[in-house]
Amino acid sequence: MPAETTSGAVPPIEPIPVVPPAAAVPPPPPGVDPYAAPVYQPTAYPPAYAAGYSGYYGAPQPPKGLAIASMVLGIVGVFFSLGYGLGLFPSIAGIITGHRAQKRQPTARGFWIAGLITGYVGLFLSLIGVALLVIVIVIAVNAANDPAAFSELGNT
User: Fold this and answer.
1) What are the pLDDT digits (tens) for 110-141?
2) Below-70 pLDDT ranges, the chain
3) CA angle 92, 98, 99 (to 5 degrees)
4) pTM here?
5) Shortest CA distance to 118 belongs to which of 62, 69, 76, 63?
6) Listed residue (91, 50, 86, 88) closest to 72, CA to CA
7) For residues 78 and 120, what is the distance between their CA atoms, to the nearest angstrom?
8) Distance of alpha carbon 97 from the chain centroid
9) Where is 48: in which H helix or E strand?
10) What single-letter DSSP state applies at residue 22?
11) Is the separation of the CB atoms in 60 and 88 below 8 Å?
């Protein structure tokens, strides 16, 4: 219900404006199908493709298993070399597989270089660990065979 004014009369309703009709589309020329798809004129240049997209996938990558195995063995060799030279065998295996991968898989250069470096570092640390272990064992055996070493410990 419309709101009443103080005089009790309802205010007049404004008329809705009339919109003129849109301009009519001219009829197609005779002999042309009005429902046919529009004909586009060819341009001088073909459409450009997105940057970096060549339209096909790259060539399949060669396998890198030997190089990855070299890297993993080298890392394991470095890690285990901290435990009394236990990394000696994985380090040697990493060095061997690294040199084989160098000849067979030149595309996996980063992996086999990492395997060679970590293999040689693990071999060096393992040899130091084995040398220290041998020195400690020799000192312990000499001390056990020398009765004077134990008597000096008890007299102090």
Assistant:
1) 999 999 999 999 999 999 988 998 999 998 88
2) 1-8, 43, 45-60, 147, 149-156
3) 95
4) 0.56
5) 76
6) 91
7) 9
8) 24
9) none
10) P
11) no
